[in-house]
């Protein structure tokens, strides 16, 4: 999948093979089998081109990583504790990226909505002098 995501376009077995062979020796049939398995699992789609296929990722690498994290989190018997432990493992850079992502998901006016919600939910303080003033008139 790494090679398919790297190319970011439909690729042939031959293209992936040649890319992999720059690092190590690997057989054409091995690459073909792996891409066929990825297709069977639904990770790539393929389109016939002559006697070969062009393979393309079904989702982005980011979407795949998010699905893995969601799966791991949902299997926890204590999701809140799992998140706290996960956040504790993060670097400062990762925490900043998380904060940026939360801001993006919440939208540009989320701070205003949050402040309005806090005002509505906050207990109303009574002005001790106002009742006496109103009653004395």
Report a brief summary of the structure.
The protein is mainly α and 137 residues long. It contains 8 helices and 2 strands, in the order αααββααααα.
Care to describe what's here?
With 137 residues, this protein is mainly alpha-helical. The protein contains 8 helices and 2 strands. The chain has helices at 2-7, 13-20, 28-41, 61-74, 79-89, 92-106, 110-121, 128-135; strands at 44-49, 52-57. The longest helix has 15 residues, at 92-106. Mean pLDDT is 85; it is low at 130-137.
Binned strand content? 5-15%
Structural class: mainly alpha
Helix content: 55-70%
Number of E-type strands = 2
Largest sheet: 2 strands, antiparallel
Q: What pattern of helices and strands is seen along the backbone?
A: HHHEEHHHHH
- Could you list the spans in which at least 5 consecutive residues all have pLDDT below 50? 130-137
First-last Cα distance: 79 Å
Outline, from the CA principal axes? elongated
Q: How many distinct helices?
A: 8
Mean pLDDT: 85
Radius of gyration: 27 Å
Based on the model shown, name its key terms.
137 residues, mainly alpha
Give the SSE layout:
Layout lengths: L1 H6 L5 H8 L7 H14 L2 E6 L2 E6 L3 H14 L4 H11 L2 H15 L3 H12 L6 H8 L2
Antiparallel strand pairs: 1-2
Helix pairs in contact: 2-3
């Amino acid at each position: 999948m790494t090679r398919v995501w790297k190319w970011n376009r439909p690729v042939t077995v031959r293209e992936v093979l040649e890319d992999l062979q720059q690092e190590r020796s690997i057989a054409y049939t091995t690459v073909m089998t792996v891409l066929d398995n990825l297709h069977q699992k639904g990770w790539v789609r393929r389109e016939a081109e002559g006697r070969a296929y062009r393979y393309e990722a079904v989702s982005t690498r980011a979407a795949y990583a998010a699905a893995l994290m969601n799966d791991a989190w949902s299997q926890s018997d204590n999701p809140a504790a799992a998140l706290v432990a996960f956040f504790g493992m993060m670097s400062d850079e990762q925490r900043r990226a998380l904060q940026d992502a939360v801001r993006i998901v919440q939208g540009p006016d989320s701070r205003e909505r949050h402040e309005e919600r806090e005002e509505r939910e906050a207990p109303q303080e009574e002005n001790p002098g106002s009742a006496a003033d109103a009653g004395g008139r």
